[in-house]
Design brief:
Structural class: mainly beta
Number of domains: 1
Helix content: 10-25%
CATH superfamily: Hypothetical Protein Pfu-838710-001
CATH topology: Hypothetical Protein Pfu-838710-001
Number of helices: 3
Largest sheet: 10 strands, antiparallel
Distance between the termini: 35 Å
Length: about 160
């Protein structure tokens, strides 16, 4: 089970270069249900996600590099690329700051995963977080993968 909230980014946190990060490339074989393949650094993962926004089922399976590139040829829509910074929060939780590259350059989202719904609902976001878009399907990566054209005016935070 995945329990997470997603936010726009008002401003980047200080000392960003001091945090560890992953280079991510991901593509979607299906968006309903979500079936995603991801290359995260040198790791390859197949993910299935159920319906939902803040709470949904998620299963991750390892892939070989060969399997990843075979499936990548079958993916629909956009291949998303981003740098994901791992930023510890004072509450003992971790922020995953995604800075998109390529077609979605300029888009920045931050996600926080929680152990339970009560903790998720009680979470007070740091000052550098922007609007809570957890329940907005527009910011789901699977939705971004389906956009034929990226129009920055669709995403007000890019102005």
């Amino acid at each position: 089970m995945e329990i997470e909230r997603k936010f726009l980014v008002k401003s980047l946190p200080g000392r960003l270069e001091e945090f560890s990060f992953h280079q991510i490339e991901q593509a979607y074989l299906c968006t309903r249900p979500v079936v995603r393949i991801r290359r995260q650094d040198d790791e390859f993962i197949l993910t299935w996600k159920g319906e939902g926004m803040m709470v949904r089922e998620e299963y991750n399976l390892p892939l070989t590099e060969e399997g990843y590139f075979h499936l990548l040829k079958k993916a629909d829509g956009n291949i998303l690329t981003k740098k994901r910074y791992l930023i510890p929060l004072s509450s003992g939780l971790k922020a995953e700051l995604d800075i998109f590259e390529g077609k979605f350059e300029g888009l920045r989202l931050v996600e926080v995963e929680f152990p339970d719904e009560d903790t998720a609902n009680a979470f007070a976001a740091p000052d550098w977080f922007g609007e809570d878009v957890t329940h907005s399907g527009a910011y789901q990566n699977s939705v971004l993968s389906t956009l034929e054209h990226f129009h920055p005016e669709t995403f007000p935070e890019l102005h």
